[in-house]
Amino acid sequence: MNSETILAADGVPITLRPCQGLDECGACVDLQIQIWGYNDGDVIPRRLFVVAQRIGGQVIGAFDPESRLIGFAMSLPGVKSAKAPLRSPTPYLHSHMLAVLPRYRNAGVGRRLKLYQRQEALQRGISLMEWTFDPLEIKNAFLNIHRLGVIVRSYTPDFYGVSSSRLQAGLPTDRLHAEWWMESERVTAILSGSPYSPPEIQETIVVPSAVSEWKASSVSRALGVQSENRDRFLSAFARGLAVTGFRVDSEGNGIFELARLQPPQPEQPHPGVL
Hints:
- The chain folds into two domains: 1-125, 3-Layer(aba) Sandwich (Aminopeptidase), CATH 3.40.630; 127-274, no CATH class.
- 31% of the residues lie in helices and 28% in strands.
- By secondary structure, it is α+β, with helices and mostly antiparallel strands.
- The longest helix has 20 residues, at 219-238.
- Helix 1 packs across helix 2 (46-54) and helix 6 (211-217) crosses helix 7.
- It is built from seven helices and eleven strands.
- An eight-stranded mixed β-sheet has the order 1-2-3-4-5-6-8-7.
- Strand 1 (4-7) and strand 2 form a beta hairpin.
């Protein structure tokens, strides 16, 4: 794919393009350490970024006017086996990491990186992308569900095990699994701002706006929210519900909206599912 130039919220031009060479892959390593504070046991090494590009994954960089890396998205290729709900082995991308420097986090760079990933994947005939995200992170949930149109119907407690990330605050690494059916009617409508009739909401799960503060000052309170919501998500998914919406109320609380999909599961990834 060709490079793409966008304007950040402060008017700074940002260039999106695939990373090139060892130095730019190394800059991705430096950026993840800067953002998450990983130790050597958790950091994704440069060699994996190189391999990801080689085997059909993605390493997309966001660069400032001085060609400094200010964000990146990295994905790995995968194959869904030929069992229900898919009729045949299906290639997909697992978007393992999205990183943006704090200065640019509210400037739309993260969303544009995801859209660049989507465009590149669709050009190769790949219509499904998945990734994990922390159910306590309100901004991430808003981006993933409300602005990109993912659905969620699975939850794994402590998915990555103990993490050295300072953002995790010592909590279990519980994760929701995002499914981005990139050519579906739902996603196409959300991305274009076209009318879309979502399924009827049957249940909501709330994340208090203060949970990020509790991670720093009262981890036990954050753990209590995580534990309660974990049980609710697992119960809802076991009953066939899926996360199909997310909103933020006037007090800043995040609200997951769950509904029953029709059809309950996609039979194959193609335009129109979900």
